[in-house]
Specification:
- By secondary structure, this protein is of the alpha+beta class.
- The chain has two domains: 100 residues, no CATH class; 56 residues, no CATH class.
- Helices cover 31% and strands 19% of the residues.
- It has a five-stranded antiparallel beta sheet with strand order 1-3-4-2-5, with helices on one face.
Length: 181
């Protein structure tokens, strides 16, 4: 069985650390002696120069990756970061094997952290006019305004772009100054 075929047999992803704490992790495949869990010796091998963040468990009926008299082993995904990774890769750079851990699901390869999702929506003309006026007034991009609005609506204010937070603060300061006069 090839490495990518093992994705089809994944049962669950086990995170040893909160994936929300990592902008990206390295996704790799290696052989394990079991379908599930990880032995301390195998964990130590993987963690030489790396920090093991998580790994995939396989379904109980997963066939071994090797046969022909070799000891049975099972290709499984694992997720690490190297010591000093985030210092070495700056300005949104990351290694080729990096994936956004929040996109990792059983049977689904993680997405590149450089990739951004794109959506298309239809909006009524009166909203588009208001959007365009706001963009002219603030100098923000359409994307920043829409992302900010969605983040506020979905109660995820930590995801609001910095420019939008600055504009909001400037508006509050101007309103306070106007009250003092």
């Amino acid at each position: 069985m090839r490495q990518e075929e093992s994705l089809n047999y994944e049962k669950e992803i086990i995170w040893l650390f909160d994936p929300n704490d990592y902008p990206w992790v390295r996704e790799g495949f290696t052989d394990f002696s079991t379908r599930q869990g990880i032995s301390q010796s195998r964990k130590r091998e993987i963690e030489e120069g790396h920090k093991l963040i998580g790994y995939a468990n396989l379904e109980d009926h997963t066939p071994p990756s090797s046969r022909n008299g070799d000891p049975e082993y099972f290709y499984r995904r694992y997720f690490t970061i190297c010591n000093g990774d985030y210092e070495a890769y700056t300005n949104n750079n990351c290694p080729i094997e990096a994936v956004d851990p929040l996109t990792v699901e059983p049977k689904i390869k993680g997405s590149s952290p450089k990739r951004k999702a794109q959506i298309a929506v239809r909006v009524p003309l009166f909203i588009l006019r208001k959007l365009n006026i706001h963009i002219q007034k603030t100098g923000m991009s359409q994307t920043d305004v829409v992302v900010s609005a969605l983040a506020k609506y979905l109660d995820s204010t930590s995801d609001i772009p910095l420019i939008q937070r600055i504009v909001a603060l400037e508006e509050r300061v101007a309103a306070l100054e106007a009250k003092e006069r």
